[in-house]
Amino acid sequence: MQKKDNRQQGITRRDFIKGTTAATVALGIPFITRHADARPIKQELVIAWDASGTAGWDFHKVTQKTQERGASCTCYNSLIEFDRRKVDLNLLMPALASDWDISEDGLEWTFKLLEGVRWHDNYGVEWGELTAEDIEYSIKRSLSFGGKQQFSSVKDFKILDKYTLKMMMQTPQSQIDVMAMVAKTPQCFIASKKAIEKLGDDFNLKPVGTGFFKLDKYVPNTYSEWIPHERHWRGRPMLDRVRHMYMKDLSSREMAFQKGEAHMIQGLVSQRWYESASKLKDADPVLVGPGSIMVLHFNTSREPFKDKRLREAVMHAIDRETLEKFIGKNITRRQISPLHRDYMGYTEDVKRYDYNPDKVKELLEKAGSPKGFEVEMKISEIDDYLTPMQVVQGMLKKVGITLKLNVVTHSAYHKLIRQDVNPLVIYGCDRFPTGQQLLEQFYHSKSIVGTPKAVTNFSHYNGIDKELDTADTEVDVNKKIQLWQEAQKKIMEDAVAYPMYIYQRCWVKKKWVDLGYHFESNLEYSPLLSEKTRILAH
Amino acid sequence: MLTYAARKVLLILPTIFLVLVFLFFMLRILPGDPVTAALGNEASAEVIASLKKELGLDRPLHVQFLDYLQGLVKGDLGRSLITRTSVAGEIAAAFPYTMSYTVTSMIFAIFVGIGMGVLTAIKRNTVIDYLGRIFSLLGLSFPVFFMGLLLMFLFAVKLDLLPAIGSGDLKHLILPALSGGLIMTAYITRLTRSSMLEVIRADYIATARAKGLRESVVVFRHALKNALISITTIVGMYFGMHFAGSIMIEMIFARPGMGKLLITAIKQNDYTMVQSLIVVYCFIIIVVNLLTDLIYGLIDPRIVYK
């Protein structure tokens, strides 16, 4: 009876359970949803590099290749830095130097340092604060290793106080020269004097910098992990951890990306890869501009390219458009002058060597080789060099020029071209984005390979020494630009090098990795992290 | 047995010495050097000379060799010419990863391989035998890197069951061990099958059966035990090969290990690292071979060590 009464009132046990469950769910859903929304996103980023390991981060003693630069650019700072967004000399900004001053004669440079910049507190040591002594020490140390060229114009230093350093130059230097000196990574990074002296050789794998990430863990040839420098002067970075993985195998990198275990991966300099990468899960392909310039240098000191007409014949035999298309329309950019098109001082007002088979015939006849000629060269095994030379080989064959390619390992290629064995040298490079360094290293007589101060003048060219020497000591930037442009015109007029194209590195990142800025280009070959880089909700 | 083992151990020293002499001079003949690797291709001759001096590479080769040898005798493997870290420290850190991969995949291969080999032998010319043979043929045809990528694609990317890369915990060891293990399983299966088929036809097996022993006793206690000699030989041989061949697995699965250490050192012309790693590899292979020899005696008491 009782049961019946209850049913009449609509309060059976089943109804009660149903009601309370429904109420719990109804009340709980918004809570669960809100809770889920509020769940913090793991701010941990994994970057996979095309490398089997790292050589370390002692940037003075060890070349900072792409994989090292990715980390060292977040570990160290320089006095002045490029804006992360773009390689643009107008966007150079103060970093460790808050201000600088140039004497009227251009011989003295005074840098005022930011106060209160802390070194990474790492390896159980408080490394203290950045001082002018660290700057002097870093530059002097650089001078004893790879930075000899970069800091060659520095005569002496004078520490004015804890935060002020004066640099005395051997010759008058313009604003842009000093920028090239102190903003060009990696030699211009500043490291802690105290740390280098105390850690000795261990500093290489125990770097101490002022950048927004400090090293937390390094597993040889596998990965390095970096954590925030809590006392960074621009504030703590948004990422809690960054892992740089060294993964030589491309398929593994791609699968780790698909799986979500790697969030940014280095790809190939290949159009096909660039297109296929965009199809990966949550992919945002990135091209790293401004890219490196690929140039074919003619060895003018020996046959057959002693003869200018034969050099011109080769240049007219190359179909630039086909070459660019073959390498990839997205990853290449047009380049017709020996200086990179984005560098200060670039000019397009140079002699052009358009594809013209009739002109080739005419030149060959004039040079006394109407049926063409044969030339043999060593070439690197890596695709970046081998592929374009194979394309050129095909093009030359059409006009009767036989180019024999002997493939060697990449390291052997670099060794052999410096021993001056090749009549033709293909070389990809980038430099600080002004005319001086690039033109000097490739076309000044003091850089001719085989000489004591040799750098990379493979063509043995000596026709622009005067322009470059004058530009080097010129303090008026406009006059410098004029001289660099004159130099480019002469190089092309004398047909000592054929600028092939600019090629850009390819990367892919997850759409939900926000770099914190709109990335266009840098000189580091990879999209760099910033203090605002973060993982978005996904 | 002890005298035999002691003699074998003593033979390790001249073997390693000869390997070392060969390696030391070969490495220096090959193009490239650690200084160029460290400073890059564009370093000037002046800077290269200064670093060479700092690293002691400007000294005559025989002086460098004696110096290295002296260190080796004292147990000092030197410092890496590139990273400047202690070579012994780096090898010690990498060794457990390579060893854990090798041991896990070998254990998997031994158990599954012997199991499948026995099964296919006793079920000769049945569906089980055919399937087992197809499996081992596939295993023999697959290069380890392809097997690794295939398993990674299936279990990590598609099914999302296991991690693709890394080395944190046991989960990270499954795919690498399976990749190497499956290939090794194929070898062991084939060998066990053929050894078992040979033994099963022997008179003493017929006698055992005639005595009314259970089939499992006949197979495992009488047949398999006698087939184990050749299986042990192959397992011992492959253990060394597997250990040295871990390089592909370490590259694919982004695992730390000695293989990865070696390939990076070779690329960087890091002489001291390469020399020391090869010495360690040699030592391990010799020790494994010695253990294999000693195990023969345990399996077959008829074997006498002289």
> What does the average pLDDT of chain A come to?
90
- Low-pLDDT stretches of chain A are 1-8, 30-37
Instruction: Decide which structural class fits the backbone of chain A.
Output: alpha+beta
The secondary-structure element order of chain B is HHHHHHHHHHHHH
General shape of chain A: globular
Helical residues, percent of chain B:
over 70%
What share of residues are in beta strands of chain A?
A: 15-25%
User: CATH first level of the largest domain in chain A: which class?
Assistant: Alpha Beta
Structure summary, number of beta strands of chain A: 19
CATH topology of the domain at 94-299 in chain B, what is it called? Answer: MetI-like fold
Number of helices of chain B: 13
Radius of gyration of chain B over all CA atoms, rounded: 24 Å
Number of helices of chain A: 16
What is the level 1 CATH name of the domain at 94-299 in chain B? Mainly Alpha
Stated plainly, the CATH topology of the largest domain in chain A is called: D-Maltodextrin-Binding Protein, domain 2
Specify the CATH homologous superfamily of the domain at 94-299 in chain B: MetI-like
- Please report the total strand number of chain B as a whole number: 0
Strand content of chain B: under 5%
**Low-pLDDT residue spans of chain B:** none
Structural class of chain B: mainly alpha
Helical fraction of chain A equals 25-40%
